[in-house]
Amino acid sequence: SNMAKRVVLLRAVNVGGAKLPMARLREIAENLGASNVSTYIASGNLLCDVAEPDGFDRALEQAIEDEFGFFREVISRSPTELAEALKAHPFAIETEPKFHYVYFLLGAPSPAQVDALLARGLPEKLAVIGRDLHIAYPEGVAGSKLTPAMIAKTLGSHGTGRNLNTVTKLIELARD
Fold first, then answer.
1. Which helix (H) or strand (E) segment is 3 a member of?
2. Order of all β-strands in the sheet with 4-10
3. What is the DSSP string of 18-36?
4. Which residues, listed in sequence order, are joined to residue 133 by a DSSP beta bridge?
5. What is the pLDDT of residues 20-79, one digit of tens each?
6. At 136, phi and psi to the nearest 5?
7. In whole angstroms, what is the distance from residue 101 CA to residue 138 CA?
């Protein structure tokens, strides 16, 4: 078949006001033609097989906005891309994997955009590899000045972060 396995990540759902039941997300994905649909935890992680990944992602954004009234970017990767991102994570895990994130971007930033982010002098360790921003938080995400708005403005692309524990689990689930 021409279906491709995808790990589909939604930005900022079930935090603050953007309530999106995972059961409904699975139904919407199926209505858009996805098969083998499942979700992992409530933070907007969808695993499915789709024919046209980019078309599916944009259609899913539109369907969620139509039904729930908020727009959230959808960023997807193949299981192989997820595994490559995990392997490429450049920071030694000295504390806990949950303080280490891959922030998956819609598009690859330019070198000048990466330089602009690094020049902000944030306490996090940061590296951009392709379309992925790798982050090591000194003490976790809470209170960090590295906000989604700052990332989008500086790197020119929205994205969504997952800690290494979640990335590892999504790879396992996608390969089952």
1. none
2. 35-40, 45-50, 4-10, 74-77
3. ----HHHHHHHHHHTT-EE
4. 103, 128
5. 899 999 999 999 999 999 999 988 899 999 999 999 999 999 999 999 998 989 999 999
6. -120, 110
7. 12
State the distance between the two ends of the chain, measured CA to CA, in whole angstroms. Answer: 18
Residue type for 118, please? L
pTM of the model: 0.93
Cβ count within 10 A of residue 112: 8
Alpha helix stretches (DSSP H) within 3-137: 22-31, 53-68, 79-88, 111-118
Q: Any long-range contacts for 66-72 (C-beta under 8 Å, 24+ apart)?
A: 67/24, 67/28, 68/18, 68/19, 68/20, 70/17, 70/18, 72/10, 72/11, 72/12, 72/13, 72/18, 72/20, 72/44
In the block, residue with structure tokens 């490559």: 84
Contact call for residues 137 and 124 (beta carbons, < 8 A): yes
